[in-house]
């Protein structure tokens, strides 16, 4: 996807350069239309990112849950976080660490629990797509004994526990919101700058096109 965007950007730049050099009105018109679309798209992106950042700021200042939307986000975050942890426990964790996490609460359920864990680990390749999330979690909000047991219960039973108390989102809320605020702020600034740059390019393309049109009229006269 990134490569395709890069190729598209280079292609548009070449069209603009060629159109400006030879002052081809058709190429300049095409370039202007594309830049107007880009300006609009990045303007919308900047506005959306700024709105998202404002909401995240409000959530961070409020006591959780700030609103119903945060509860839904927390539920999704908990599930995704635990799916990433499943990949860790099945591929990277030591046997002792996995045992202490999954069987720390009820020893009498060890056999059933072990069966469940083995079945889950047989599907661990399915959850390999969560590896990047695991990498983020390891660096930003590492697992604790509390979140590990919450995930162990969720993975073993398929039933989520409390959304906030002892849950991954409850432990990682401040860190996650800080990351979301920083990310959305960066996206808002980047979108705004690109939109302004696109507007400037459109103005230059229109100026070049008008200049070419004026020269053609003078030549005919």
Give the proportion of residues in helices.
over 70%
H/E element string? HHHHHHHH
What is the total number of structural domains? 2
The N- to C-terminal Cα distance equals: 50 Å
Number of strands: 0
Per DSSP, what share of the residues sits in E-state strands of 2 or more residues? Answer: under 5%
Rg, nearest Å:
27 Å
Overall mean pLDDT stands at 75
Low-confidence stretches: 106-114
Task: Give the class from helix and strand content and strand pairing.
Answer: mainly alpha
What is the overall silhouette? elongated
**Largest sheet, strands/sense/barrel:** none
How many distinct helices?
8
Question: Could you please describe the fold and organization of this structure?
Answer:
By secondary structure, the chain is mainly α. It has two domains: 1-64 and 188-221; 67-163, no CATH class. The chain is 81% helix and 0% strand. The chain is built from eight helices and no strands. It has helices spanning 2-22, 25-61, 68-91, 95-102, 110-122, 131-140, 145-157, 168-220. Helix 1 packs across helix 2 (25-61), helix 2 (25-61) runs antiparallel to helix 8 (168-220) and helix 3 (68-91) crosses helix 6 (131-140). 25% of the residues are buried.
């Amino acid at each position: 996807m990134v490569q395709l965007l890069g190729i598209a950007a280079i292609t548009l730049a070449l069209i603009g350069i060629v159109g400006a050099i030879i002052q081809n009105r058709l190429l300049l018109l095409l370039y202007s239309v594309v830049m107007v679309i880009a300006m609009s798209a990045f303007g919308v992106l900047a506005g959306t990112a700024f709105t998202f950042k404002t909401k995240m700021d409000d959530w961070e200042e409020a006591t959780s849950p700030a609103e119903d939307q945060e509860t839904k986000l927390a539920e999704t975050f908990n599930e995704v976080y635990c799916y990433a942890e499943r990949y860790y426990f099945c591929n990277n964790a030591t046997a002792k660490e996995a045992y202490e996490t999954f069987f720390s609460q009820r020893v009498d359920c060890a056999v059933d629990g072990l069966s469940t864990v083995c079945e889950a680990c047989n599907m661990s390749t399915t959850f390999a797509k969560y590896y990047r999330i695991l990498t983020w979690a390891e660096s930003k909000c590492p697992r604790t004994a509390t979140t590990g047991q919450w995930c162990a219960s969720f993975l073993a039973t398929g039933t989520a526990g409390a959304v906030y108390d002892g849950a991954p989102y409850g432990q990682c809320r401040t860190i996650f919101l800080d990351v979301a605020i920083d990310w959305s702020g960066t996206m808002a600034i980047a979108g705004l700058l690109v939109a302004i740059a696109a507007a400037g390019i459109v103005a230059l393309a229109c100026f070049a096109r008008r200049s070419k049109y004026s020269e053609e009229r003078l030549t005919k006269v």
